Amino acid sequence: MNIILRIIISAVVAFGLSYILSGIHIDTFLTALVLAIVLAILNAILKPILIILTFPITIITFGLFLFVINACIILLAGKFVRGFSVDGFWWALLFSLLLSIITSLLYKDEGKKKRDSE
Predict the structure, then answer these.
(1) Which residues contact 9 (CB under 8 A, 6 or more apart)?
(2) 3 touches 74 (CB < 8 A)
């Protein structure tokens, strides 16, 4: 149940960001749901592999290269999801940063509510 809630939250945030950022285009909310699922799969499978392969450059850049990896995953998701497009690398970078920040703030509230109820 928790993963479904996280996917829905990510879809809502992504859909909202598509209205704010002119370089991000999401056709419908269903497309945003598919995007959230694809991003979850890519982050679970591909991101750890990319982090291991780029570990030396990540160390040299003090972890900032992880932002590049996130942007590349967003661009890759744009190739897989019909109805989702990104106008360029910088839009993907901004979208990934904002998506990460907003969803982590929302997840933090969810975790706080869960701890308070226990």
Answers:
(1) 103, 106, 107
(2) no
CA 50 vs CA 3, 79, 100: distances in Å: 23, 18, 18
Give the pLDDT mean for 89-103.
96
Coil, strand or helix at 71: helix
Confidence of residue 27 (pLDDT cuts 50, 70, 90): very high
Euclidean distance between CA atoms 55 and 95, whole angstroms: 23
Indicate the helix (H) or strand (E) that contains 24. strand 24-26
- Is residue 54 within 8 Å of residue 65, measured between CB atoms? yes
DSSP category for residue 87:
S
The residue behind tokens 């850049």 is: 61
Q: How many angstroms separate the Cα of 51 from the Cα of each of 4, 16, 95, 104, 108?
A: 26, 28, 20, 20, 24
pTM assigned to the model: 0.87
